[in-house]
Specification:
82% of the residues lie in helices and 0% in strands. The two termini are 15 Å apart. It has 8 helices and no strands. It is mostly helical and 188 residues long.
């Protein structure tokens, strides 16, 4: 947890954006005859999982670490955040499992559009809505923790709306947010 709090912004950017991009480009550049065209089926999930694990590890570190380190328990609770940060990770793992399962079915030649539409309507759409709600809550909570730790008072949305917007454009907003996290984590 401390590694994410004290990491430099360029280090996190490499892990969240650049390394997954290299994995995707590497998957595209491998000749299709080398792995029978299956490299993209493994490169895409690997890149997404790597990026999301670093993102949610960082969100957990900032949300939980700064919350405890700065004693923000007097201002608000973090019970909802602890559950909401686990939801996207669980959904990403489910999507990864379905991705690989779908690739297996496609490889066996038992793929039908009816199965895809049924799966999308029954599972993907509700999971995506839950994913979006939980991700926005995590970003909201981390922005609130950051601003409350800086102000040493309970921050309202007007106070941390800029941090929230910067977190929504995460790889780019990371360049402005992480130095502030470093300063707060260095102060004991």
């Amino acid at each position: 947890m401390k590694r994410f709090l004290l990491a430099l912004n360029w280090q996190l950017f490499l892990l969240v954006a650049f390394l997954p991009l290299l994995i995707l480009v590497g998957g595209l550049l491998v000749p299709s005859y080398y792995f029978s065209g299956a490299t993209l089926f493994f490169a895409v999930p690997l890149a997404v999982v790597l990026s999301q694990v670093v993102l949610y590890g960082w969100l957990w570190s900032v949300g939980q670490g700064l919350y405890r380190q700065k004693g923000l328990q007097t201002y608000f609770s973090n019970k909802t955040f602890r559950w909401m940060v686990a939801v996207p990770v669980f959904i990403i793992l489910l999507v990864l499992i379905f991705w690989l399962w779908g690739a297996t079915i496609l490889g066996m030649g038992k793929f039908s559009m009816a199965n895809v539409l049924t799966g999308a309507l029954l599972f993907v759409v509700p999971l995506e809505l839950l994913f979006v709600v939980s991700k926005f809550y995590c970003l909201y909570f981390v922005a609130r923790v950051l601003k409350t730790a800086e102000l040493q008072r309970s921050a309202h949305f007007e106070d941390f709306s800029m941090e929230f917007v910067l977190l929504m454009v995460f790889p780019i907003g990371l360049w402005w947010i992480q130095p502030r996290v470093n300063r707060l984590a260095d102060k004991k």
